[in-house]
Amino acid sequence: MAVIEAQNIQKSFGEFKAVKGVDFQVPEGTCVGLLGPNGAGKTTTMRMIMGLSALTAGSLKVFGVPVDKVGRSEKMRIGLVPQEDNLDPDLSVRQNLEIYGSYFGLEKSYIKERADSLLDFMQLSEKEDNRVNHLSGGMKRRLIIARALIADPEFVILDEPTTGLDPQARVLIWKSLLKLKEQGKTLLLTTHYMDEAQRLCDNIVIVDGGKVLDEGSPKELISKHVKNNVFEVQKPIPADLEKSDIDHEDIGDSVLYYVNDPEKVQGLLGKNATYMQRVSNLEDVFLRLTGHKLRE
Amino acid sequence: MFFSILNIKALMKRYYIEYRQLVSAFFFGDVLERIMFFIAFGMGLGRAVSQIDGVDYITFLAPGIAAGSGVFIMNIATTYGVNNRYEGSGIWNSWLSTPIRLQDILISELIFDSLRAAPSLFILYVVAYFFGAVPSVEGAMLTIPILVLANMVYGVITLNMGVYLGRMLYFRYIQALWVMPMYLFSGVFFNIDETPEWMQLFANVFPLYHVLEIVRPMVLGRPVDMNSVLISFIVLSAIFVVGFYVAYKQFQKRLFD
Ligand SMILES: Nc1ncnc2c1ncn2[C@@H]1O[C@H](COP(=O)(O)OP(=O)(O)O)[C@@H](O)[C@H]1O
Ligand SMILES: [Mg+2]
């Protein structure tokens, strides 16, 4: 069964259409990545799933239940890591977990046990009595992830869990997400780090301007849109290469050529070309589909 | 049921933890200012006004100050306090991502803030007692639960105004156009029955006037007209129910649309 089934979901803020008819599914036990530039509508989509934003049109089911009928039993099964840090500023680190657990109506002893293990899991045990205002950005993020897991949810929604963190903190969060996957949890993730998405996600949905551009496994998307290898060739482009029918994209100062067989391009480069060759990755797909121009 | 007791209990605990940490700040905000009003007007103006409504001025004033104190507490809590929670720190969003729902948050906010006023009222009456301004101690104690309920009504009104205005900068309008007029023209400081007719009519607009009609005789140890109590109770309850529903709809629109 799919944990999330979204059909043609739309969201308008006044005249402005932020989400313009999006379809996707999150099958149970998988990690789905929702990727897109800033302003693509990712957060809005996640807020609609959580019931924090009403749908303008379309059909959205969460655990098979229409989102406007979602109640306590479904909410108990979902954990949300929101994009913004909305920890409770009047509570300590531990209280942020324990009081949050009480909102799920959980037993006190169970909450305490969960809080102990989550503080440990996220390496926050030393800070448990600190006020949250005194935490670093990475610690706040880790605490928010721990908070989302307090009721041991089956489904975790993570909106940019690692944005703005140093590499150490990112690695720690990756590891914890991999552990959640091992435990069979279902994940819906947004991130601007394509390596992160490539490593964690079974399926990727690329969105831009409130619409789905394409979806598939990272492998499928790469071979479909950017082949195996990419050559970034500085202008002026050698005449032979320019005349060829190799799949390419002009990005201003240089042109990107996508091929499965690298020799095909190498043979046409001539002697004086300045270029760079590498194995293509999800970032190439992302840039190819969403364009190279800057966003919001 | 529309509300979930389980959710309300969980939120009450959260508010209580905050209250415990900030109890001295609440004391200064909630009580000290009212005590200063009471002493300054009671002792100062009380010298010039010998008797009012058949009692000393300070005795007349005590129930007024008590009944009016909640107006300020509820205004600050339901405008600045609430706005900070749904926009500033954004913790309502985190609550709404759990089984807790909007109606549970709104009612808990009103209940907790109203209850918070009870200790403040007690302290006010203790101070008034030392000035010999509480003729009926039982009557005064009985007004505390009544005033807690009255706070729910004050609160639901300013809650609506706050969410309607939306931005903190505009909350001054509420203070200037609702809270202060209500405080000054409901008969806290003077006997409404002795004012010009237009002022008597004007006072009817304010819940505080109707609350005072019930509370003042109780503290003064006079018989209370049960008929008018019943009417006031029905009207104030109706204001609360309608006000709560409208606030709920307004917040739904603001948060989810
Ligand atoms: N409450 C709102 N009111 C008006 N516009 C909004 C609101 N929330 C989001 N938007 C707009 O909707 C678009 C999508 O936003 P968002 O879902 O946050 O994008 P993303 O998370 O993909 O960066 C943006 O253009 C944003 O400015
Ligand atoms: Mg976002």
Task: Please provide a written account of the structure.
The complex is a heterodimer of chains A (296) and B (257). Chain A is 33% helix and 28% strand. Chain A has 296 residues and is α/β, with parallel strands linked by helices. In chain A, a hairpin with a 2-residue loop joins strand 4 (57-62) and strand 5. In chain A, helix 8 packs across helix 11. Chain B is mainly alpha-helical. Chain B has one domain (5-256). Helices cover 80% and strands 2% of the residues of chain B. Chain B has a two-stranded antiparallel ribbon. Chain B is globular. The interface between A and B is medium-sized, with 29 and 25 residues. Bound molecules: adenosine-5'-diphosphate and magnesium ion (MG). Adenosine-5'-diphosphate (ADP) is lined by residues 13, 16, 18, 36, 38-44 of chain A.
In short:
The complex is a heterodimer of chains A (296) and B (257). Chain A is α/β, with parallel strands linked by helices and 296 residues long.
Run of helices and strands of chain A: EEEHEEHEHHHEHEHEEHEHEEHEH
Shape of chain B: globular
Helix content of chain B: over 70%
Question: What hetero molecules are bound to the protein chains?
Answer: adenosine-5'-diphosphate, magnesium ion
Total number of helical segments of chain B?
A: 10
List its salient traits:
heterodimer, A: 296 residues, alpha/beta, Rossmann fold, 2 domains, six-stranded mixed β-sheet, four-stranded antiparallel β-sheet, elongated, B: 257 residues, mainly alpha, two-stranded antiparallel sheet, globular, binds adenosine-5'-diphosphate, binds magnesium ion
Task: Reconstruct the topology from this structure.
The complex is a heterodimer of chains A (about 300) and B (about 260).
Chain A lengths: L1 E12 L2 E12 L3 E5 L6 H8 L7 E6 L2 E2 L5 H4 L2 E4 L11 H11 L4 H14 L15 H12 L6 E5 L7 H16 L3 E5 L3 H7 L2 E6 L2 E6 L1 H8 L3 E6 L4 H5 L4 E3 L3 E6 L2 H5 L8 E5 L2 H9 L6
Parallel strand pairs in A: 3-8, 3-9, 6-7, 7-8
Antiparallel strand pairs in A: 1-2, 1-4, 4-5, 9-10, 11-13, 11-14, 12-13
Chain B lengths: L4 H17 L1 H26 L2 E2 L2 E2 H32 L2 H6 L5 H29 L6 H29 L5 H15 L11 H7 L3 H14 L5 H31 L1
The structure holds adenosine-5'-diphosphate (ADP) and magnesium ion.
